[in-house]
């Protein structure tokens, strides 16, 4: 799959499923190949099979959460992330969804702040997207002054690490926060 040989990867993954149909990792690997080949619906079905076999397979929960989020199912994504392993990347994604989701029933500024702050702590505060996420969480919680200050810190780090797309995005969000407006995504990221 990493070499771009998706046809061969699909056949190998199918062989793995035939040889070990009760193997959660086999279904997980098959889901990755299916997702890469563009068959997201079947990939989700394989992830669900993997989790039926092994309900605590953290990588499957994470992959299923990302697939659901890509399809606009933020609540389902959050549910699966909560059952998986919560490293800095997962914490950031969860906080981002909780802070910026277009669905008000999903948003929770206080939880987003807690998750983003924890992710920053785990990453030793070196990630501009984490600062950006914490700023969005503060804005969702109507703490716009904190949002601006935090976004500025993320902006500095993004500039220092030469991330022009992120710099532009943070600058746009700072303008929103200064106006007392929380950021919303048009679709989940």
Summary keywords:
Serine Threonine Protein Phosphatase 5, Tetratricopeptide repeat, elongated, 189 residues, mainly alpha, 10 helices, 2 domains, single chain
Classify the beta-strand content into a percent band: under 5%
The CATH topology of the largest domain is given as Serine Threonine Protein Phosphatase 5, Tetratricopeptide repeat
Number of domains: 2
Order of helices and strands: HHHHHHHHHH
Q: Which CATH class of the largest domain is shown?
A: Mainly Alpha
Count all strands and give the number. Answer: 0
Query: How would the global form be characterised?
Result: elongated
Gyration radius (Cα, Å) is 19 Å
Structural class computed from helices and strand pairing: mainly alpha
Straight-line distance between termini: 24 Å
Structural write-up:
This protein is mainly alpha-helical. The chain has 2 domains: about 1-85, Serine Threonine Protein Phosphatase 5, Tetratricopeptide repeat, CATH 1.25.40; about 85-189, Serine Threonine Protein Phosphatase 5, Tetratricopeptide repeat, CATH 1.25.40. The chain has helices spanning about 5-20, 25-35, 40-55, 60-70, 75-85, 90-100, 110-125, 130-140, 145-160, 165-180. Helix 7 (about 110-125) runs antiparallel to helix 8. It is elongated.
């Amino acid at each position: 799959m990493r070499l771009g040989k998706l046809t061969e990867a699909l056949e190998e993954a199918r062989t793995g499923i035939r040889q070990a149909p009760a193997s959660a990792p086999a279904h997980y690997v098959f889901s990755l190949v299916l997702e890469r080949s563009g068959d997201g619906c079947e990939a989700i079905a394989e992830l669900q099979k993997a989790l039926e076999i092994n309900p605590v397979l953290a990588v499957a929960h994470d992959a299923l959460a990302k697939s659901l989020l890509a399809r606009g199912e933020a609540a389902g994504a959050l549910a699966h992330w909560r059952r998986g392993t919560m490293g800095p990347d997962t914490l950031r994604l969860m906080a981002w969804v909780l802070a910026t989701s277009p669905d008000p029933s999903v948003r929770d500024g206080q939880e987003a702040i807690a998750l983003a702050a924890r992710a920053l702590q785990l990453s030793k505060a070196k990630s501009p997207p984490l600062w950006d996420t914490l700023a969005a969480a503060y804005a969702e919680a109507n703490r716009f002054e904190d949002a601006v200050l935090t976004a500025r810190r993320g902006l500095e780090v993004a500039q220092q690490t030469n991330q022009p797309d992120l710099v532009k995005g943070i600058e746009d969000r700072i303008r929103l926060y200064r106006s007392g407006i929380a950021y919303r995504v048009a679709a989940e990221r």
